[in-house]
Structure formats: structure tokens, C-alpha cells
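go over both lines:
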Amino acid sequence: MEESLPSFAPSASWEVLRRRAELLASLRRFFDERGFLEVETPLLCRDSVVDVHLEPFVVPLPAEEGGLRYLQTSPEFAMKRMLAAGGEAIYQVTRAFRRGEQGRWHNPEFTMVEWYRVGDDMRAGMALLAELADRLLGLFPRECCYAEAFRESVGIDPLEASDEELAEAARVRGWNGSSHDERDDWLDFLFATVVVPSLPADVPILLYHYPASQAALARLAPDDARVAERFELFFRGVELANGYHELTDANEWRRRAESANERRRRRGRPPIPVESWLLEAMEQGLPPASGTALGFDRLVMTALGKESLAEVMAFPWDRV
């Protein structure tokens, strides 16, 4: 990024913006060739993804205009409603919004690509993501299970270690926590500070089978309830995509959402409404599917060898 740019100008160069457009066109061709339908869903909704760590932008409106709305952190809810209504293979290129996420690899408003295909399990979802990575990055990802990567870099088994062992491993590596510390806090810290930096930088890495406590909206593995059928793609130390063999059990979804809200309350964060049209759709029947969300700005950044999102976005947060 050029330091001498006038304040009104895009932070990305025109050459980068052209390459970004080419990558986006290639991505669309990839899904079109595989029979996916491109869809669009609303950005302002009454409900939002319930997650301990994601903070949505809240838009208060008068009751006659619909009341409180959320700028979507992901199009997940609306796209799953489409699956429940007969959608089979759908994808979307959209804007997503997350409060408090600003920095080298974060921007509160960013471009997300999300897709779902009915009938796919975790392995099929991983295979599709690997094909897309090969198309856009020119490199086919290497697979590694989460526990193996954790053991090799941290030296303990994340599935077998006690809370005390994880807490001590985090403490000796600089963890400064609070009275609300719990197992996932230590896992997240060790993963971000030890595991990810140890991943090979010259090839994309597909990690899979995350601990069950970090399932989010993935189903648990049928042959090992300690792990979830969740996968993530990393390249050059950056998380690019997050995917699930999707949870379809409405009761389990409600339990996880209520648990996430309880953890939000303990951290002083407002709860997110659990009742939603997605829950209604799941109660009617959500078909088995795999889904993935990809941060397109990050993909462009790593594909072009740039160091920050500001180098690949026209107008990052400090220019709007």
C-alpha cells in the first residue's frame, strides 16, 4: 500500500483490484461448473448467529419499521432456511459484518463467500474446499487432523489433557486470563499462538476434527464423540475458511445456542435471540449437508502475497 495516497483514494492499487476481480470471476465459474446456484439473502435480519466470540452490529429501528435488526455476521441462517425449503447446492458472495474486528487480518465489514451442498458429509465438504483452493491459490491443500497438529506443536493431546494441563500449557506461554477462563479459552490461545504459527507456510493446510467443545454448528463424529466434523483452511498463517458437516438436530442446536448465550453473559456480552426462523426450519427438517464460509479478502491477500487486508480492499475501515 502506498503511503502517499490521498485520503479519498482506494488503499489497494488498481492492479490488485483487477486481480481481485479475476479471482472472484474464477470463483464464480468454479461453482457454476459444479451446478451451484448463486443466491442473495438479506443483510439486516431479526436474528443472528449465536456465537460466544462474534459480536454483531445492532440496528435499532422503530417498531413500525420492524424493530431491532442485526447486520449479519454470516449469511448462514438464511441460506440454511433455503436448504430446508428445497435448495440443493447454493453459494453466495456477500458482505458480512462483525464488531470489534479490526487489524491486519480483520475488517468490521468484509466479503464472505458461503456455500452449501445437500448430501455432502465432512469429507465431501473438505474435498470441494480443496478443489477451490487449488483453483484460486494454485496449490492443493495438505490435510492434518487438529489433534495431531496440536500434539506436535504444543506437546499435549487436546482431547485427553485435563483442564489443569491445558491451563498450565497456556500460562507458561503467556496466557493472562480471567475468572471466566474455561477449556476452550486455553485451547483457542494455544491454537492461535503455537499451533497455527507451526503450520507449513508454503502449502495450504486443511485441519479437521476439532474438539467437540468447539463444534459450533457442526455435528459430532459418529465414531468419536470427542471430535466434531468441522474443518478449517489455513495458508501462510491465516485462517481462510471454516466448514462443517452441518448440525441438523433442532434440539441440539437450541442447547448449543443457549450455552453460548450463557457464556456471553458471563463475559458481560448481551445474549443473541435463540428463537429464529432457522430453528423453525430445522424443526421442520434440515437436510444433511456440508457448508463452508470463506473470507474472500483474506484469500486475495494470501494469493497475491500481501501483508494486510488494506492492500486488497478498496476502502478498509479507516477510509470509510
Remarks:
- The first strand starts at residue 37 and ends at 38.
- DSSP finds nine helices and twelve strands in the chain.
- The mean pLDDT is 95.
